[in-house]
Amino acid sequence: MSCSLKRLRAALSRAFVVAVSLAPAAGIADEEFGEAPISFEDREHWSFQPLKRPTIPAVKDTCWPHNPIDRFVLARLEAKHIQPQPSADRASLIRRMTIDLTGLPPTPAEVDVFLEEDSLDAYERLVDHLLASPAYGEHFAQPWLDLARWAETDGFEHDKVRPDAWKYRDWVIDALNRDLPYDQFVSLQLAGDELRPGDEWTRVATGFCLAGPDMPDINLQQERRHTVLNDMTSTVGSVFLGLQFGCAQCHDHKFDPISQGDFYRLRAIFEPAVDFSGHVFDEGKPKNKPSRFYFRGDFRHPGPEVPPDFPRVVNLWNDEIEKPAQDAISTRRRAQLAKWLTRPDHPLTSRVMVNRLWQMHFGRGLSERPSDLGWMGHEPIHKGLFDWLVVEFIEGGWSMKYVHRLIVTSATYQQASRPTARSGIRNNSQQGGSSAPSAAHDTWTQVVQTDPKNLLWSRFPRRRLRGETLRDMMLAVSDSLNRKRGGESVRPPLPAEVVQTLLRPDHWKVSKDRADHDSRSIYIFARRNLRFPMFEVFDRPAATASCARRSSSTIAPQSLLLLNSQFSLDAARRLAGKVMSKETDRRGQIELAFRRTISRLPTDEELDDITEFFALRQAANEEEIDERTLPLSMPSEAEPRVAAAMVDFCLALLNVNEFVYLE
Amino acid sequence: MMNARHRDLRGGDDEFSARIEAYELAFRMQAAAPALVDLSQETAATKKLYGVDHPKTRDFGVRCLLARRMLESGVRFVQLYSGDTNGWDAHNNVLTNHTEYTEKTDKPIAGLLTDLSQRGLLEDTLVIWGGEFGRMPMSEQGKGRDHNPWGFCYWLSGAGVKGGHVHGATDAVGLRAAVNKVHISNLHATILWSLGLDPERLTYFHNGLEEKLTGVEGARVMKELFA
Lengths: 663, 227
Prior knowledge:
The complex is a heterodimer.
Chain A: H1 2-21, H2 68-79, H3 90-102, H4 108-116, H5 122-132, H6 134-147, H7 165-177, H8 182-195, H9 200-205, H10 221-240, H11 260-270, E1 292-294, E2 302-305, H12 333-341, H13 349-362, H14 383-395, H15 400-408, H16 411-414, H17 421-427, H18 436-450, E3 463-464, H19 467-477, H20 496-499, H21 533-537, H22 556-564, H23 566-582, H24 586-598, H25 604-620, H26 640-653, H27 657-660, E4 661-662
Antiparallel strand pairs in A: 1-2, 3-4
Helix pairs in contact in A: 2-14, 3-4, 3-5, 6-7, 8-12, 10-11, 13-14, 13-15, 17-18, 22-23, 23-24, 23-26, 25-26
Chain B: H1 2-8, H2 14-36, H3 44-49, H4 55-72, H5 94-118, E1 127-129, E2 134-135, E3 147-148, E4 155-157, E5 169-170, E6 177-179, H6 184-194, E7 203-206, E8 209-212
Antiparallel strand pairs in B: 1-4, 2-3, 5-6, 7-8
Helix pairs in contact in B: 4-5
C-alpha cells in the first residue's frame, strides 16, 4: 500500500507540472518548460535498483535442480506445495531444443542418435552443437528485427525500397552467431560509425536507429525529420532501456519519472546524425544546430534549447555528455550514450535483455511486458532469479549464448509440458505403471489448478510457433530448405490477388532463381506495405513500431492458409514423394512421415485411423486423379490413388497441433 | 482425431480446442464459398441492375453483387473498396478522376440498394459510403485537389436511416464543416448504436486503460438521422 501511495504522490506532482507546461506557447521558443526533479521515491521502483547477486535459496528436493535457476524456481513451488514436472522424454527434449534454438526440427537420424546416447553430457553437447549452428543466428535475428521495427521499404504510400537494408539483417545474424557481447551489440547499433570509424560493416549496425518507417515525400521535410527523430528516441528508449519513452514526446510520462525534457535531451543525442542520405549513421562534421524541446510534441511549436543528456531517473551516477573537441569529426554523443548504457552497473540495460532472452525460451518474460519495466509493467514474481541471471550475464561478459545455455540446461526448461506417466509415478510410486496415466492427470490437474497461468514455471509452457518458423519447418521436413545464408532478400511467388493490392505490381518482383523461393524465412523480402501472407496471418508485426512480444492468435484464416496454400500443398507433395521413395511399404512410409514432421512414431491407435483414412480415400476417388495433387518425384510404380492419399496425409501432418506448437 | 487425442493427452487446453474449432470454421467457410461466389445463378436482369453487363461497371458491380450474396448467407460485415490503392486520390485532375470513378460505382451502388430493398435486407443492413477525407475546394497543380480533413460528406442508408435527409453543411466554399458539424467520433458512435452496441459501454483493455472506440471526450449518437 505504502508503495502505491508513494507512486500516487510522485505521479500527482508530475501532473501538476504538466498543467504548468501546457500554458500557451505557440511559436515562443524561449518559453520555459516545467520539470519535476527526480525524487527518492521515483528511484525506488524495482527495475531501477542497483544490481547485486542474490542468495540462492535453499530447497528441500536437492535432486531436481540442475543449476541455480531451478533452485529459485523450486523454492517458490515448494512454498506452494507444487511438485515441478519431471523432465520431458528425450524425444520431446531434442525436438523442443532443436526448434527453440535453431527454428528447425531435428531430423529422424538426429533423434535416433540422441535417444541412443546414454552419457549424461549428451544433452549439454547437443546444446553446444545447436548454439554453434548458423541456424541459431538466423532464428534469433527475427525477434531482434521485430524490436528494431525493421523492414526493407519506407512504408507509407510509395513504400520505396531501401536497397541496402538487408545488410543490417545480416549484421544481426552474424553478431548473434559470433556471440558478440551484448554491450558491444548495443554500442555498435547506436554508434558503430563513431566507435569504429571507417569500418563499413560496423556502420551497417547503426541501421537499427533508422530502420523504421519514413515518408520522404512528405510536404514538410522539417516534419519528416521530427517524426524520424521522435521514433528513434522512442525506440531506443523502449528497446534498450525498457521504458516507454514515446509517451514523453508530447507530455511528461503519466506514470514513469520520464519528463518531456528527458525525452528531448535523449533525442538531442541523435540529432547531429540524422541527415537522410542513407539508412545508416554517418555523422561527419558535427552540425551546430541546437536541439530543442517541442511543446506538445508538435514540430511547429519549438521550445527552449536542450542539451544532450541521459534520462535522469536511471542516471544514478550523474554522468554527463562531454562537448566534442574543436577538431572532432563527430560529436561522439552516441558513443557516450552507448558507454553509459553498457556500464556494468546500469540497472536497466542488462535486465531488459535478460528478460527478453527468457521470453525467447518460455514465451513470456520474467517481467511480462518486456519493453516496459516501468510502473505500468509487471513487477517480476521471480526477482531473485531475475537478478541472479542478470549478474551472471554481466559477469559472463554479456554473452547471450551463455544465458541461452543456462536457461536450456535448467531442469525448469526441461520440464514436461503435459501429464506424463512419470509425473503419476512420482506421486503414487507404489502403484506401478498401470494406473499411471490417470494418476498423471490428477497430478497435472493439481498443478494447473494451483498455478493456472504458469507464473511459477511449474511446467514447460507450450507455445505456437511463429509463421516464419512453420514455413522453415515445412521446407525442412520435405528436404526442400535452401540453406544459402545471407545476401539480398528473396521474393517467392505470391497469389495474384495479394500482389494486386500493391501500389505497383513490380513492388513484388519474384526472384528469378527458383532455389531462392525456398530460402529461410528470415531472408524473405520485408516489404512494409505487404507482409508475407503466411507470416502476417500468424501475427507478424507491421514493422511500424517496435514489437517486443508478438500476439498469438488462433483464427480461421491460419487454417485456410495452412491447409490450402500452394506452399502447403507443395510441401506435402514433396514430403509424400520423399517418404514414398525412401520406404517401400505403407507402414514404413507413414512412420517416416511421422518422424520427419513430429519426431515420433505413430501409436497403434493412430495407425488404425490412418489405415482407415487410406481405405476411404482409395474408395472415394473414382474419377481421374489431378496430377497437381500427386507427390513430386514419386516412384513410377506407385498407384496414383494411394499417392494422392499420401499427399493428403502429409498435408494433415503439417497441420496438426503437434507440428504447429512447441511442446 | 489426431488433434483431439493430442489435446486430451495434455489434460485439455482451450487453445488447442480453439484451433480445432478454427479448422471447423475454415471448413464451413471453404464449403460455402464456391456457391457464394458463383454468380451464374443470378438472372440477367439482376446482373444488369448491378451493371455487371457493362465493362465500365462490371468490376464494382461484381463486388456489390457479391456483397448482397454474402449478406444473404449470413456474413455480418462486408467492406467494399473502389479504386483499390490510390484510385480516388485526385491530386492531378479531379474532374477526370472523379468522373471515372463515379461512373464505375454509381450504377452498381444503386443496384445494390435497390436489390437489398426488394429482398427485405435493407431494413436491418446499414450501408455506409465514405472515405477517410474529402477533397479541397481550391486547386492543387492546376486541376487537382488535395486532401480535405475539415469538411467532407458521408451517406448512410438502410437500418432505419431517414431517406432524403441532409445533415449539416460546409461553409460557402466547401472548405470546412460549418453547420451541424459531425465529429468522426459521433459517426462512429452512431454506427455502433445502430448495430445495437452502446458506445459508452463497449470498451477494450489497452495500455492499462479500458478504452472506448469513440474516444475519451464523449461522442453523441445522432438519433435524428433515423426515422
